[in-house]
Design brief:
187 residues, alpha+beta, Nucleotide Exchange Factor Grpe, Chain A, domain 2, 3 domains, 3-stranded mixed sheet
Length: 187
């Protein structure tokens, strides 16, 4: 009986040891799970931080682009602020130029000098507002992006595709053409 009792005691001790080992193993596994959870939380937080940094950089870049674009638009607005008024005054400028041509042809020098003074004053005022002539000469190559062809006339072979006559001057304000020069081309 003593042997049985010792055997039972040993089995009980083994079972107790086995339960202890299982508990220790469970504790170790739980600690590992907690560490993995902590690591996964850290990884998640790092990923979130990375995403937030990316969003911030994109937002900052968009804001910089917006700021630059609005500054450019504001500058263009200042350059062409009087564009509508200047467009309305261009026919008056054309009439001045036609009047000067007629007065000069008639030969009245005093009248011509007086009109030239008024014309120069008017032209200088428009230049101060930002008006510039679009330079076009007879014999220049015709470019449909910067010229407006109103007619084609037959001529020498040298003048095919070139400007034969400038009917109406072109004007620009800043980098924008507000009236394209009207020209006659050779065909």
């Amino acid at each position: 009986m003593k042997r049985k009792h010792n055997k039972n005691q040993k089995q009980t001790q083994k079972q107790a040891q086995k339960r202890k080992d299982e508990n220790v193993q469970n504790d170790i596994e739980m600690q590992e799970e907690k560490q993995e959870e902590k690591l996964s939380e850290v990884e998640k937080l790092q990923e979130e931080l990375k995403n937030e940094k990316d969003k911030y950089l994109r937002l900052y870049a968009e804001f910089e682009n917006f700021r630059k674009r609005t500054a450019k638009e504001r500058l263009e607005l200042f350059e062409t602020a009087g564009e509508n008024l200047v467009k309305e005054l261009l026919p008056v400028l054309d009439d001045f130029e036609r009047a000067l041509t007629e007065i000069k042809r008639e030969g009245d020098d005093n009248l011509f000098k007086g009109v030239v003074l008024i014309y120069d004053k008017f032209k200088n005022t428009l230049k101060k507002a930002g008006l510039k002539d679009v330079e076009v000469e007879k014999g220049d190559e015709f470019n449909p992006e910067i010229h407006e062809a109103i007619a084609q006339i037959p001529g020498d072979k040298k003048m095919i595709g070139k400007i034969v006559d400038v009917v109406e001057k072109g004007y620009a304000m800043g980098n924008k053409t507000i009236r394209f020069p009207k020209v006659v081309t050779g065909k």
